[in-house]
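Hi U.,

Before I forget, here's the chain from the pilot set. I'm dumping it here mostly so it's searchable later in email.
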Amino acid sequence: MSELGTGPRKSAWLNWEWRAALITIIGVAVVVAAVFGYFAYRRVQLRHEQEARVALYRQQQLAAVKMAAGVCQFSIQTSQRLGILPQYAKLVRPLPLATRMPHRFVCIGGTNVGHYNMVVDLACKKRDGALCKSLGVALVAILQDDGTVLYRKQ
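Structure:
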């Protein structure tokens, strides 16, 4: 029969086994901590990327709203400069309405007497490949509420 004593060889072997187990446990703990750290860092990084995308989207939307408001402002100023609308006419809606025709919009202006529909076309003046570098706005027509045409571009 074999002896299960605690000789020097057995003691050295148990000591080595405990060290190997301890190294394994510490190694697994380090790997788990690294995995958790990576996922925590990645989540923060994704949140920052998403916030940056949202901020960019908001800036683009704000620029589009400002441009759309500028289109209506242009249409009422041009109408007043041509003498079609009175100088005290104001925009009823600050933003244009889309029509069925592409690139054609309607801005609504008015006075205390009536409303005017100003039809404008948007056209690209200067292209750089597929991107439009300069946008042109042309006043196409001005109509009263009853459909009377006050101005039509020739």
